[in-house]
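Supplementary Text 2. Reproducibility record for the structural model of the 186-residue chain.

All settings were left at their defaults, and a single model was retained for analysis rather than an ensemble. We include the record here because the model underlies the residue-level annotations in Supplementary Table 4.
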Amino acid sequence: MSESLLQQQLVKASSLLNQGEVIAYPTEAVYGLGCDPFNQQAVEKLFHVKQRPMEKGVILVAASVEQIQDWIELIGTEWEKNVLDSWPGPITWVLPIKKPMPDWITGGRDTVAIRVSDHPVVQQLCLVFGGPIVSTSANVTTHPPAKSCDEVRTEFEDKVYCICAELGGLDKPTQIRDAKTGRVLR
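Retained model, structure tokens:
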């Protein structure tokens, strides 16, 4: 795919995110559904499309630590090195929040799940959008995750815009770890 076609898709996707829409995009292993995490209607729309309960909260994905550092307890903590050594990369960390975040992001917890991705499309998307976005697998709950835009369209018809690009090299969704304990959660 040409770089200009990808840029056009990223600009369109960012515009849709700013309008409160849900998009699909390639991640490290599967296609993800995303939206603006701070737009409650957008997150509700994502949960409706996915048929998932709001109480679960969501994973956020970012292009850099700078995009999320104001929200999380990381710098100066005992887990800082473990987290920063793995980012950007395919590990999602559950981190304590340092200022209140909406319950629809955290599921009412005092932690948030965040990944600073090394997937080039995810990074570019977060940069064009100007911040982190929601990252949840592109599937109706209990269905297998989509691995292409064709599968996204089959699953969601025309309910979400899909960025057509390559998946990363993983064969299963990214690992989730608790930053305080190092415990693998997924």
